[in-house]
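Design request, tokens follow.
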């Protein structure tokens, strides 16, 4: 019973945070490999399945609001598809203990990134270098971020969104594109990790996780305007940093 309560609560809460802020999905692998004591492969399969759901729901909402550049998102995601396949293959040949350390390091750096990053309030505009105007750079960025996310279990937006902003994409469009992109990272990653698992035993867990993750995402996205985004993101960042330090300490000491 405790196992199922953690699965439901984690996906509901993390889904709500994703709906509210666009980030926090990277916390799911830690829940699966930490409190639930699942293997890294099983945890990543479940996490990437959830990222597909949250990415699809989130990108639909951003598209309706006019904040999703679909042609650019498709070009970026073509690179991510290939990169994600490579990331899964690398994960399967690297020792599980090393993958766990990499996962916790990504969570730590993600938390620090959220804590330090300041969202620009300027309107979306094209000034200076804009990566969406450069096909080769877009494909390379998609490939590299897709490989890192699939290898480590990072959801996608927490890594891709800040990079897009730095490379000339407006903040709202960057969130929409990164959510859209996470679907294309999640599909090959989920399939690749599922093929290494006992699918029959994992399917009931996945079904419950996806239902409650979707509920959380929908609830969060509908209530995002009521929440102080800055305070919430800082809270998620501090929590992520503390969890990552704790897990790294237990893994290394």
């Amino acid at each position: 019973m405790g196992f199922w309560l953690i699965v439901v609560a984690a996906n509901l809460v993390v889904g709500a945070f994703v709906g509210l802020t666009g980030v926090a999905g990277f916390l799911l692998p830690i829940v699966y490999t930490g409190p639930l004591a699942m293997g890294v492969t099983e945890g990543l399969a479940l996490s990437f399945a959830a990222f597909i759901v949250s990415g699809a729901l989130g990108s639909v909402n951003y598209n309706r609001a006019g904040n999703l550049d679909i042609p650019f998102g498709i070009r970026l995601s073509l690179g991510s598809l290939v990169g994600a396949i490579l990331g899964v293959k690398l994960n399967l040949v690297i020792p599980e203990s090393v993958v766990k350390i990499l996962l916790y390091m990504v969570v730590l750096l993600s938390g620090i990134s959220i804590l330090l990053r300041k969202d620009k309030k300027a309107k979306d505009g094209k000034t200076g270098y804009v990566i969406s105007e450069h096909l080769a750079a877009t494909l390379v960025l998609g490939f590299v971020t897709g490989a890192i996310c699939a290898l480590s279990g990072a959801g996608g937006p927490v890594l891709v969104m800040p990079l897009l902003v730095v490379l000339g994409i407006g903040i709202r469009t960057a969130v929409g594109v990164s959510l859209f992109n996470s679907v294309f990272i999640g599909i090959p990653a989920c399939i690749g990790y599922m093929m290494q698992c006992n699918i029959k035993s994992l399917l009931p867990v996945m079904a419950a996780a996806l239902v409650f993750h979707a509920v959380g995402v929908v609830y969060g996205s509908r209530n995002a305007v009521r929440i102080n985004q800055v305070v919430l993101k800082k809270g998620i960042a501090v929590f992520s940093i503390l969890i990552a330090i704790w897990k790294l300490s237990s893994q290394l000491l």
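Comment from the thread starter after seeing the answer: thanks! The chain has one domain: 1-117+126-252.
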